[in-house]
Amino acid sequence: MKQVLFAASEATPFIKTGGLGDVAGSLPHALNQTKEVEVAVVLPLYRDIGTEWRKKLEPIRTVPVRLGWRYHEARLLTYVHQGIRFYFIENDFYFGREGIYGYLDDGERFVFYNKAIEQALPYFFKKPDIIHAHDWQTSLLLALLKTADRPLPVRSVLTIHNLQFQGKMHHDAFDQLIERPLKHFDGFEWDGMINLLKAGLFHADQITTVSPSYAEEIKTSYYGEGLHPVLNDRAYDLTGILNGIDTESYNPSNDKALPVPYQNEREGKLANKTHIQELLGLPVNKDLPLYLVISRLTDQKGFHLLTRIAGEFLQNDVQLVVLGTGEEVFESAFQGLADAYSENMAVRLAFDETLARKLYAGADFFIMPSKFEPCGLAQLIALQYKTAPIVRETGGLRDTIQPYNEYEGSGNGFSFNHFNAHELLHVLLYSLEVYNDPERFNTLYTNLTGEAFSWQASANAYASLYLHALAQDQPSLHEVRKGRNA
Length: 486
Known about the structure:
By secondary structure, this protein is an alpha/beta fold. It has helices at 19-33, 51-54, 92-95, 106-120, 135-146, 173-178, 196-203, 212-217, 228-233, 266-280, 303-313, 328-340, 353-362, 378-384, 395-400, 421-435, 438-447, 455-471, 477-485; strands at 2-7, 37-44, 58-67, 70-81, 84-90, 130-134, 155-160, 168-169, 189-190, 193-195, 206-209, 238-240, 290-294, 319-323, 345-348, 365-368, 388-392, 414-416. It folds into 2 domains: 2-244 and 455-485, Glycogen Phosphorylase B (Rossmann fold, 3-Layer(aba) Sandwich); 266-452, Rossmann fold. Helix 5 crosses helix 7 (196-203) and helix 11 (303-313) packs across helix 16 (421-435). The radius of gyration is 23 Å and the shape is elongated. The two termini are 36 Å apart.
């Protein structure tokens, strides 16, 4: 059995801010079930990882980490949770802070983290055959291992969860923090800066991203966030593997958060709608369609489209609920709409997992008009709860949501193509028309299922990718190209 080390900046159940945490926490379990690989995970030991976890951690040893003229200590600890071995890198100077991202020295913090993993690898209980890094926060590790004086005989995979975030630093960081010979500089630099994600893209043996469509999109200038030339150069090594979800956790038949568990029957779902209407102070009417937003309220998620046309849409017999936090402009806009349309809109500016599950169960439609979406998990969760997603055709949304076709009786949601507010309004009005036609809506409702999006399908694809990489005796295509250009 081959050993795989996940290097990540977050993972459930210890620490999570978004989809990366779900992937790094859930995918290892599914990978281990393939019987092809055994996965361990390494994380920073943030202050926000609570004492209930910390008291379970077993110390291994402390290693010195050099950053220029300074030395910092990295304490390596471990704990086995539900069959997965987790390692933790502890350093209070870098990780003993509230939250995990958003500091001015984030680049330096994660350079330290990557160098700490490199120094601690000899003390991990099992030597990895594959190191699988996730996003910019750990992509540097792959570059460090490839440019070391004595490179380790391991294969490497880098997964891009969101290309927008790249870990850009002043070019002085190459000498002052990364400390590799000057001949390697080009592999770390991009557009006049040190770019940690680019360093991983340049040095990884294989690159994946979290949906097939996003893998194609990021090779274009519109979606490539300035790195599309690098990604086109690595196109032969780039694969899109769709994320999954925990279909046992997100299961309305045994979800303890729900007042009325249900499976496929609409009666149970309507009972959950009534509960939500009562809970949020909306008029109780099970016949009104309930539209839902659960999200970070950011520009990426396309909410300026929704705020632009929501007032017009809310003049119909509909209800809209928004749950989330984010940019102040969207928080204010949604709160203002709720004040103006208090009879059919409610807003909760918070992150509340229990309420989110109740909302998924009670809603009829889930709105996700993203400007770009590498994969998206929320639309998959909505399908599990028999809630029809309404999405823009981009990235993983395109790969998972097929628009309803009333002539063929096919499709599991609604979609629109152009990033345009009135296209969104048009599809919202069409979904309302379908809802008000029992025959068409019953057909759509029957099609709503998320069972095809379990983690096992993703795990099988990753296991195949690992074994393919390990079976290659010859250098990767990227290594060949580097040799030709030397």
